[in-house]
Amino acid sequence: MTSEESLGPVPLRKDRTTVLGYPRGDLLTVLIGMPILGLLLGIALPPLARWLGDLPVLPWRDGIALVGSLDRPWHTAIAVGLGLVVGLLIAGTDYDETLKVTLTDQELVADLHERKRSIERARVSAVFLDGKELVVLDESSREFTRGVHKTAARALARALRSHGYPWQEADPHAALFHRWIPGAPGLPAEAHAVLVARKAALKNKAADDVRDLAETMQGLGYVVRDEGKDQYWRPLAVGTDERGGAARD
What we know:
The model is unreliable at 1-7 and 239-249 (pLDDT under 50). Strand 1 (10-12) and strand 2 (17-20) form a beta hairpin. The protein folds into 3 domains: 24-96, no CATH class; 104-172, Signal recognition particle alu RNA binding heterodimer, srp9/1; 173-239, no CATH class. It is an alpha+beta fold and 249 residues long. The chain is 40% helix and 24% strand. The chain is flat and about 65 Å long. The chain has helices spanning 24-52, 61-68, 73-96, 153-162, 189-203, 207-219, and strands at 10-12, 17-20, 100-103, 107-112, 115-120, 124-130, 133-138, 143-148, 178-179, 222-227, 230-235, 246-248. A 6-stranded antiparallel β-sheet has the order 1-2-3-4-5-12, covered by helices on one side. A 3-stranded antiparallel β-sheet has the order 6-7-8, covered by helices on one side. The longest helix has 29 residues, at 24-52.
């Protein structure tokens, strides 16, 4: 994590670089607030469990009784330590799951799950927010990247437009999406098979498989997105381009 990433949109005038990372306020809330919450839970859970243990009807009574029995100082210290560790793990996971974007007038670099990919500005056809996720489309309307992003929409739009990227207020291809119905006409059998596998991955919360299968769909010429428990698909708007973004270490 660089200091620039924690600041949100930070134009660096000398080399015209803007880093769209984790806004400082959100970063401080997560990195400080979550451990403090874990600390408070570590202190509060044993007395709360003892109070709950007096209720006549109580599920998981044995487990709650065990938590309530942790009343010695070293028990409390362990509970507080565990709370801090859990808080830090949650904070780290939230940071890792957030898409970071670096902009220049020549290229856009996306950093997600410690993998960096770059795309030339001339190849970007649209950038927009889909709910909490930032989406970048290439010239064939493939999703070059998609990920949860913390910067406010207004700041995103200002930063992207300042570097000449085509910011959109909504998905310009939204009207092309169809709700996926297994076996329905419009998709080849291979695409249906991928979406069946992806539905199972979504149910099992296998995030890596969900992303990989979305990439597989794009290789077949289709973009897929989710709304609730449903999958939606659309054909690529301009042919099929397999180049994607250039991977960088």
